[in-house]
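Proteins fold reproducibly. Consider a sample protein:
=====
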Amino acid sequence: MAAANEDVKLIFAPADGCNHSRAKQFAISTLSRDDLLPSPIEQFHDWFTAASTCKVNVPETATLSTAHMPSGRVSARMVYLKELDKRGFVIYSNWATSKKAEDVASNPRVSLTFWWPEVERQVRVEGLAERLSPEASQEYFDTRARDSRIGAWASRQSSVLQDREELDAQVAEANKRFEGQDRIPVPEFWGGLRVIPLMVEFWQGRQSRLHDRFQYTREDVVDLEWKIERLSP
């Protein structure tokens, strides 16, 4: 009887009520080799600008995936892209106690995935992670709301809390520490992480799941030449 219950599908081929079990079709746009810029950084900037113009909901949202070595345990979480430069994609976080910090310390290979449903586009980035300097991190840290800066000091990200009151006490302690200070220094354990791409894939949804996919690859982070290939959907 238990085995029979295990076979019951709690979710099966979800779709909207109009299409019943048929998955949504993608038909907004197409992507060809002639559409692509030589650099994936430039191409991402072009697509990001278009996503912002088309009012994609929070287009800077991405999934950051990491893998801990030697176990190979994979973790993923949502983050915000805060900067894009010629070297890569920059996010900010706690790099002392978080799981992502533990993973990156053991394995610098990470990935980012952006999904923009309003324009039926996806971008995947695979590359190497490097920490930004304290000076570069301070520049962004200064743009954050004061409470967010205090929160960065207060939170031991991903560590176990006994209750909410324990967190509130940590916040109160940080507030007291920086009382009367307009400029709060960036914590030594907090800052920017740049993902330097080795592979970037641009995905444009198409009818019948026959999507347009183009992949940029290079052998090394110092290589300025990118190889562009169309991938099978």
In short: The mean pLDDT is 93.
